[in-house]
Amino acid sequence: MEMQKSEERMCPIIDIVIPCYCEEEVLPETSRRILEKLMSLIEKGMISDNSRIMFVDDGSKDRTWELIEAYHKQDPHFGGIKLAHNRGHQHALLAGLMSVRDHCDAAISMDADLQDDINVVDEFIVKYTEGCEIVYGVRKARDKDTFFKRSTALAFYRFMEKLGVQTVNNHADYRLMGNRALAALSSYREVNLYLRGIVPSIGYKTDVVYYDRAERFAGESKYPLKKMLALAIDGITSFSIKPLELIFSLGVMICVLSVLALIYGLLAAIFTWPAAGIVSLIGCFWLLGGILLIALGIVGVYVGKTYQEAKDRPRYIIEKELW
Ligand code: UDP
Ligand code: MG
Fold first, then answer.
1. Euclidean distance between CA atoms 95 and 47, whole angstroms
2. Interval 84-142: pLDDT, tens
3. How many Å apart are CA 96 and CA 17, to the nearest integer?
4. Which residues sit opposite 209 in a β-bridge?
5. Whole-angstrom Cα distance, residue 140 to residue 127?
6. Where exactly are the structural domains of the chain?
7. CA separation for the pair 55, 82 (Å, rounded)
8. Quick check: CB of 12 below 6 Å from ligand 1?
9. pLDDT beyond 50 at 1
10. Which of 90, 142, 217, 222 should be mutated for ligand 1, with most atoms under 8 A from CB?
11. CA 215 to ligand 2 center in whole angstroms
């Protein structure tokens, strides 16, 4: 039985899933380079000729979908999925992975701007044929990123570790997932998607492949600060309830401190010590008010997420598919 399994892993059908949001500037070059890669892998006998490059158009406002249609007409190795509207990178990626799940033996996800080195795809496939179910692409150095992006990312990984969320450092969404891992992923029903947290929690045999991350060769980042923050908040709140516990401990600490202050005030009144001025009093009020608002906000985020999950709405809507 085991023998048969490993044989099945030879020459697998690999689908490459690429979410695209307004990527008309990069798609001509991206499609050319990735097709070249795919054809070389097919020629070497590493993957099946049935392998596909699946672009997921995440409700782009430019000519992205027209380009995808044109590529599909030119070469049957190109396929496309058009989402009905913009749902964001994580949902677009999920839509792509779920659509190719029944077609492929393993799916590789990567960004449209080719910041991820496509030459390590060979290593992904070798690890897969050796029996790995999930292979993570991990960036060697981040010297191509801005100082801001680098330091915020590092702080975020540290923070996630403290919160007890299992993630792979310096891994974005460049990875290979075998069929069984994709089946497991399909059973995660959450709307608040943070794939970098979900995938490591699936388990199975995994491995890591290192690569250098390049600069986006055309167009602008589709991940402005606002989207980055939203992803970070999703990552934290959908994997950890530590912030809620933190609020509780903070409350306890403040209560203890204020009891001490009250005792001081009482003693000061009895022994006529110099009492603290009105300014410090106001400062205390502001501090308390601020802490209360933060606490309320954190609880609010969780309540809001529970609300979104409870509605159980579809996570994406597919308008068209090209196979
Ligand atoms: N993307 C998407 N939907 C969005 C935003 C981005 O599908 O709403 C895609 C985008 O086309 C790209 C990938 O997600 O393929 C990563 O985006 P980008 O390269 O702009 O992010 P960065 O590398 O700057 O973090
Ligand atoms: Mg990019």
1. 23
2. 999 999 999 999 999 999 999 999 999 999 888 999 999 999 999 999 999 999 988 76
3. 6
4. 137
5. 18
6. 2-220+314-322, 242-311
7. 8
8. no
9. no
10. 222
11. 8
Minimum CA distance residue for ligand 1 atom 19: 221
SS (H, E, C) 46-112: CCCCCCEEEEEECCCCCCHHHHHHHHHHHCCCEEEEEECCCCCHHHHHHHHHHHHCCCCCEEEECCC
pLDDT band at 279 (very low <50, low <70, confident <90, very high): low
Q: Whose CA is nearest to atom 1 of ligand 1?
A: 89
Q: What is the CATH number of domain 2-220+314-322?
A: 3.90.550.10
What's the rounded mean pLDDT across residues 164-173?
Answer: 84
For helices 147-162 and 225-237, angle between their N-to-C axes, nearest 10 degrees: 10
For ligand 1, is residue 88 a contact (CB within 6 Å)?
A: yes
| Residue 279 token pair | 């300014």
Q: How do residues 170-221 score in pLDDT, each as one tens digit?
A: 898 999 999 999 999 999 988 888 898 899 989 899 999 999 887 778 788 8
**Using an 8 Å Cβ cutoff, are 134 and 173 in contact?**
no
Residues present in the chain in total: 323
The encoded tokens of residue 160 equal 């996630």
Atom 23, ligand 1: residue with shortest CA distance = 221
- Check residue 278 and give its pLDDT: 64
Ion ligand 2 contact residues with beta carbon within 5 A: 111, 113, 115, 216
What's the pLDDT at 6?
43
Sequence-ordered strand ranges (E) for the chain? 14-20, 52-57, 78-83, 106-109, 134-139, 175-178, 206-211, 318-322
Give the number of the ligand closest to the Cα of residue 222.
1
Question: Which among 159, 172, 19 has a CA at the least distance from the CA of 92?
Answer: 19
